[in-house]
Amino acid sequence: MPDENQFIKAIKDNEAVLYKATRLYTDNPTDQKDLYQEIVFNLWKGFDSFRGDAQLSTWIYRIALNTAILFLKNKKRRGHIVPLDTIVLVEEKYDPVLEERLKILYDKIKELKEVDKAIIFSI
Q1: Which phi and psi angles does 43 have, rounded to 5°?
Q2: With 0-12 CB in 10 A as exposed, 13-18 as middle and 19+ as buried, what is 2?
Q3: Confidence of residue 117 (pLDDT cuts 50, 70, 90)
Q4: What is the pLDDT of residue 92?
Q5: Quick one: CA dihedral 38, 44, 50, 52, positive or negative?
Q6: Contact (Cβ atoms closer than 8 angstroms) between residue 31 and residue 75
Q7: What domains can you pick out in the chain, each with its CATH number?
Q8: What would the pLDDT profile of 59-109 be if each residue is shown by its tens digit?
Q9: Helix or strand holding residue 66 (H, E)
Q10: Is the pLDDT of residue 50 over 90?
């Protein structure tokens, strides 16, 4: 059984990597939440098996990347789904200029090949 406190600390320390993966490999907030949950679940399953051969952040990055790629492949098989939360948007601290810039950036990154996305993701 993994140490829960160590796991939570690892997730918090590497949260930016997890969010970056969800934004690069998914298009909508629902999928981003689902992918984030899937990555955390896979990290939890494998946390005991982490041997320390690499840095923890590198291991988390690889799990996030592999999970995101698998999530994307599985989503393509399922077809197109329109989530309800994209229709009704409720944001407290919504900055439309920043959101538009981020959307443009992520749209351009999504046009890249999988390997190129992985390189951008590692930055």
Answers
A1: -65, -40
A2: middle
A3: confident
A4: 61
A5: positive
A6: yes
A7: 4-122 (1.10.1740.10)
A8: 999 999 999 999 988 876 666 666 655 555 555 677 888 889 989 998 999
A9: helix 56-78
A10: no
- Which residue's structure tokens are 């890249």? 112
User: Are the beta carbons of 1 and 48 closer than 8 angstroms?
Assistant: yes
| pLDDT above 90 coverage of the chain, percent | 46
Q: Which two tokens stand for residue 104?
A: 């443009």
- Side-chain-side CA neighbours of residue 33 (13 Å): 5
Residue 70, burial from CB neighbour count under 10 angstroms (0-12, 13-18, 19+)? middle
| Token pair in block for residue 37 | 């949950």
